[in-house]
Design goal:
Elements (H helix, E strand, L loop, with lengths): L4 E4 L2 E4 L1 E3 L2 E8 L22 E3 L29 E6 L7 E7 L17 H5 L3 E5 L4 H5 L9 H16 L5 E11 L1 H12 L6 E5 L7 E2 H15 L5 H4 L4 H17 L3 H4 L1 H6 L6 E2 L8 H5 L6 E7 L4 H7 L6 H10 L13 H24 L3 E5 L16 H5 L14 H17 L14 E3 L2
Parallel strand pairs: 2-5, 7-8, 7-9, 9-10, 10-13, 11-12, 13-14, 14-15
Antiparallel strand pairs: 1-2, 3-4, 4-6, 6-8
Helix pairs in contact: 5-7, 11-13, 12-13
GO molecular function: hydrolase activity
Enzyme class: hydrolase
Family: Belongs to the type-B carboxylesterase/lipase family.
């Protein structure tokens, strides 16, 4: 196959072919969100004449990695970070299912250029795969009184609109789009399910803190914290005086500061409950209600949702001090409004802390959603051979993408057969709406992935 050329909504692009898969990288779906466009809703990019090379990843959004990151995070400089990538088995095909990926990273870090998110394995299974970059941290999520709210969600809407109008040229079916994401990207996916603008048919939600969304008043407290750290007014005009790279560093610092000081008087109750300062905001415009409240009422989008068995085990082990006791853990959980009903025999303080938080933030909300509306539910339960990791938050990524050996959580010999099964289920759901097991409540409960 020669280097393919495809017509997008704004001009023609030239891709490349590797091992039978065509890929088109760094395609702009919106204009650069800086300069006069900073803190504004996304705008269409300028159309171009001729053929534009789409051979390398486009610029990544300004970000600073969180401590303890277990994935490589490439940085591509440049202002045009509102770009996306497409992998396709055949640009001349028609009607192929489409998967659109929203990366995780606590909404302050991550990008579509991360090697683990390479979409070639999906394309080899007959899917057109799209990954999206969007604004992060305060650039994309801070609530500012003189700027549009939920700018990152609006970036993602613009990318989905690009997919609807342009994906057929890559062999995809715009009527068979599945939106999916992990962690913060899964939370954004739930927000889009709640918004339901008719831009996708199905959704896969991997390890979302499903109730996580900020009230407007709490989001303004976060904005105030960032503004004080920067020495500017808590407005878009004030933030505009802070360089994007500096604002990215302040955004990551806010995540670590919140984790160290879960004080609702400082951050707000919804911020502390989610333990994240940058989330979709209930602003009465883009999001009229918390996404969870809308999703449990039902809807037309097919849903595959699940968690990992030990979401917060590795994080708990890294964050709790040495020598912490069971009573210390109960007191800490109590400050978060979580009661410990019983301590299973042999459970360490770290395991107790992780399990109670995992249940409150991940398992119970998923169960509530699945009881309220039709949904396929899974648990990823393969434990890492590394000590203190278990089936940790993010461990499923290499298995979903079929890209093993790129995660610091997997250990030396992650099972390829399990990756094949996980990815096959995701592809089957995208293609047919059925991942291969019964919906929750239809003679089925939670499908467990084990080696």
């Amino acid at each position: 196959m020669t280097d393919p050329v495809v017509t997008t909504p704004y001009g023609r692009v030239r891709g490349s072919v590797r091992e039978g898969v065509a890929r088109f990288l760094g395609i702009p779906y919106a204009a650069a969100p800086f300069g006069e466009a900073r803190f504004r809703a996304p705008r269409p990019p300028e159309a171009w004449d001729g053929v534009r090379d789409a051979l390398e990843f486009g610029p990544t959004a300004p970000s600073v990695p969180l401590p303890g990151s277990f994935l490589a995070e490439p940085v591509v400089e440049g202002p045009g970070c509102l770009n996306l990538n497409v992998w396709t088995p055949d640009p001349d095909a028609a009607g192929l299912p489409v998967l659109v990926w929203l990366h995780g990273g606590s909404n302050v870090t991550g990008s579509s250029a991360m090697p683990i998110y390479d979409g070639a394995a999906f394309a080899r299974r007959g899917v057109v795969f799209v990954s999206v970059n969007f604004r992060l941290g305060a650039e994309g999520f801070a609530l500012l009184p003189d700027a549009v709210a939920n700018r990152a969600l609006l970036d993602q809407v613009a990318a989905l609109e690009w997919v609807r109008s342009g994906i057929a040229a890559f062999g995809g079916d715009p009527g068979a789009v599945t939106l999916f994401g992990t962690s913060a990207g899964a939370g954004a996916t739930l927000a889009h399910v709640a918004m339901d603008r008719g831009l996708f048919r199905r959704a896969i939600v991997q390890s979302a803190s499903a109730r996580a969304a900020l009230s407007a008043s709490d989001a303004l407290l976060v904005t105030g914290e960032i503004a004080r750290a920067a020495g500017v007014e808590p407005t878009a005009a004030g933030f505009a005086r802070v360089a994007p790279e500096k604002l990215a560093a302040l955004s990551t610092a806010a995540v670590t500061d919140l984790t160290a000081d879960l004080d609702p008087a400082r951050w707000g109750a919804t911020t502390v409950a989610a333990a994240q300062p940058f989330l979709p905001v209930v602003d009465a415009d883009v999001l009229a209600e918390p996404p969870f409240d809308v999703v449990v009422r039902g809807g037309e989008v097919d849903l595959l949702i699940g968690t990992n068995a030990d979401e917060l085990l590795a994080l708990a082990g890294a964050s709790l001090p040495d020598g912490v006791s069971h009573s210390d853990v109960r007191e800490l959980l109590g400050r978060l409004g979580l009661a410990v009903e019983a301590t299973p025999e042999g459970t360490t303080p770290v395991e107790l802390y992780a399990d109670v938080l995992t249940d409150a933030l991940f398992r119970r909300p998923v169960s509530e959603i699945a009881r309220a509306r039709p949904a396929f539910v899974y648990e990823f339960a393969w434990p890492s051979p590394l000590p203190g990791v278990g089936a940790a938050h993010g461990l499923e990524l290499g298995f979903v993408f079929g890209n093993l050996g790129l995660s610091g959580l997997e250990g030396p010999t992650p099972p390829r057969e399990l990756a094949d099964r996980v990815q096959a289920a995701w592809v089957a759901f995208a293609a047919t709406g059925d991942p291969g097991w019964p919906r929750h409540g239809e003679d089925g409960g939670v499908f467990v992935f084990r080696a």
